[in-house]
Amino acid sequence: MIHLLFLIAGLGLVMLGQQLTLLALKRIEGGIKRWIELLALAMPVSLLVLFSLTMLPDHAAGHPLTRRRPRD
C-alpha cells in the first residue's frame, strides 16, 4: 500500500515540477533551454526507476523467496 501512495505522490510532484519547468522555459533563452527540456522529460522516467527499486524484495526481512535453504 505504501508503494502505491509513493507512486501517486511522486507522480503529483513530477506533474508539478513539469508545469513549473514549462513556466520557467518561457523566460530562458539559449542552449540551456534544450537541457532543461530534457531534464523535464526525464522526471517521469527517474520516478519510475525509483518506484521499481522500492518494489524489490527486502533481503533483510527474511522473506521465504529470498531465504536460502540450509545445507544438509
Order of helices and strands: HH
Sketch the major β-sheet: none
Shape: elongated
Number of helical stretches of at least 4 residues: 2
Oligomer status? single chain
- Helical proportion? 55-70%
Mean pLDDT: 75
**What is the count of β-strands?**
0
Termini separation comes to 38 Å
Rounded to the nearest angstrom, the radius of gyration is 19 Å
- Summing up helix and strand content along with how strands pair, one would put the structural category as mainly alpha
What percentage of the residues does DSSP assign to strands (E)?
under 5%
What would you say this structure looks like, in words?
This protein has two helices and no strands. It has helices spanning 2-25, 32-54. Helix 1 runs antiparallel to helix 2 (32-54). The longest helix is centred in the N-terminal third of the chain and has 24 residues, at 2-25. It is elongated, with a radius of gyration of 19 Å.
Key features?
72 residues; single chain; elongated; mainly alpha
Q: What does the secondary structure layout of this molecule look like, with pairings?
A:
Blueprint: H1 2-25, H2 32-54
Helix pairs in contact: 1-2
Quick recap:
This protein is mainly alpha-helical and 72 residues long.
